[in-house]
Amino acid sequence: MKKIIAFAGSNSSTSINHAFVSFAASCVSQCEVKIIKLVDYSLPMFSEDIEKEKGYSVELMMLNNELKAADGVLLSVNEHNGTVSAFFKNVLDWLSRLDRNFLDGKKVMLMSTSNGKRGAASALEYTKGSLPRFGAEIIESFAFPSFSENFSKEENKITNELLHLGFMEVLQNFEHQLLK
């Protein structure tokens, strides 16, 4: 059975992107999905000095191993000031120093959400351009707008029918491509 690792690029304890990626993971039917939180892998702000003095942490190697064990990635990125959060960028920086091609052979579905009308589309575009540099194959992407208006956390579902249909089509295509 194909394995998917799912996570958000956010370090917020109330992350809507974590809620969104968890919802997506619950909709996957033919693959095994493991949801993780990047905050469980404590990484200092990247610095060449830290890298030279301390090397690579056990947490970084554990995260890298999680990614290596997966066939696919479900990732929902948050947006800070028109780009990805410093937290997520830092995770990418560390992973790429440990292994430049840490996503080699991984099929990826990128998602983003915010309470704004663009659904963190700028962060999504940034990530779409960045991850292939590390070996990722971006299969699908989906910017989910106005999260609080279109998603019920209590019911764990998309409440806007058109958005639901569009999202499910994208997610099903990702799963189909992963199973090929």
From TrEMBL:
<dbReference type="InterPro" id="IPR005025">
    <property type="entry name" value="FMN_Rdtase-like_dom"/>
</dbReference>
<dbReference type="InterPro" id="IPR029039">
    <property type="entry name" value="Flavoprotein-like_sf"/>
</dbReference>
<protein>
    <submittedName>
        <fullName>NAD(P)H-dependent oxidoreductase</fullName>
        <ecNumber>1.-.-.-</ecNumber>
    </submittedName>
</protein>
<dbReference type="GO" id="GO:0016491">
    <property type="term" value="F:oxidoreductase activity"/>
</dbReference>
<dbReference type="InterPro" id="IPR050712">
    <property type="entry name" value="NAD(P)H-dep_reductase"/>
</dbReference>
<feature type="domain" description="NADPH-dependent FMN reductase-like">
    <location>
        <begin position="3"/>
        <end position="142"/>
    </location>
</feature>
<dbReference type="Pfam" id="PF03358">
    <property type="entry name" value="FMN_red"/>
</dbReference>
<keyword id="KW-0560">Oxidoreductase</keyword>
